Amino acid sequence: MNYTEIPFNHPTEIHHLYENDLLIDHEILRQIIALPRKTLIQDLELILESTSLDLDIYEDESEKTSFVLHALFLLNHLNSNESLPKIIQFFEKHSDKDNIEFWLSDHKTETLWNVFFNLGLSNLDAVKNALFSEIEIFTKMGITNGIIQAVLHEKIDKQIVEPIFKELLTYFNSTSVELLDSDFVACVCSDVVEIKLESLYSIVKELYDRDIPNYGFNGSYENLMLEQNSNHIRKPYIDIFELYEHITSTWNDYLSYKEKTKHLKKIDEVFIKMLSENPVIKQKNNFIEYEPQMPLLKEYKISRNDPCSCGSGKKYKKCCGVDA
Fold first, then answer.
1. Which of 189, 88, 186 is CA-nearest to residue 136?
2. Per-domain residue ranges for the chain?
3. Average pLDDT, the chain
4. pLDDT tens digits for 86-124?
5. Nearest CA to 206 among 159, 162, 171, 158?
6. Is the dihedral of CA 35, 106, 145, 47 positive or negative?
7. Phi, psi of 21 (to 5 degrees)
8. How far is residue 218 from each of residues 140, 193, 202, measured CA to CA in Å?
9. Which of 61, 72, 76 is nearest to 100 (CA)?
10. Environment class of residue 105 by beta-carbon count within 10 Å: exposed (0-12), middle (13-18) or buried (19+)?
11. How confident is the model at residue 314 (pLDDT cuts 50, 70, 90)?
12. For the whole model, what pTM was predicted?
């Protein structure tokens, strides 16, 4: 269905969300926000409900697809806690990886946390059910990130969210490895350590003993435990206008050709300086060549507790090194 055929309460204003990406004029945003709250929320929820699973209908490059982001960010700005079930239904509907990538792209991990940071705390049962649903994995990570940020911002006590993480970890530990996503398991383990839910560390250890979490995410269990002593990042929670300004002024997709060229020029200047200072590297016909260098070899000295080099299987100190 074409968006002009959707029965919005405020079609003139809502159509702006379909016709503009995040570079939308802030005055238009203010006009939309000033609409009657109840009917505006109905329209924003209708945007989410009316999205199609058939992405081919959005292939026309002249049609913007940021209207979903507008709806999510505006519902969040309006503190529409009552919209949380509709938001979760959208993610359940678009649980396919390619589908949610089309709608959210990098926003899954970069900005989605804002929505659940603000709206998720009003209905933690709905949030928990979402984490156990078929929602796409990186979307789930955005949800848990919102919870973690709420704890770090002291909007909610960590003891209140502890049962959610305990239930997740227990589920992971009682489920066949083949049915689990190792990235999400690693993410939840990292979340537990980040807000120091120490009563759950033993379950985290069991998961690592079973080699379930993706080691590329946090490293080993020992590496993960070192993180609890780090200064954890409390991300700034900003309003919709600051958020749009941040995204459109720093994200590569929104940078103009001139800005991108300026950015690349800075990179070139740094690289040219590196070329002039490093004799190992030289430039030839616009390509970079690395002159082969002899590796620096450190003389190996056998330790007394190392296996003896003679192949006896004994320690060096009890074999050829007994008189050393």
1. 88
2. 3-240
3. 86
4. 999 999 999 999 999 999 999 999 999 999 999 999 999
5. 171
6. positive
7. -85, -155
8. 17, 11, 17
9. 72
10. middle
11. low
12. 0.77
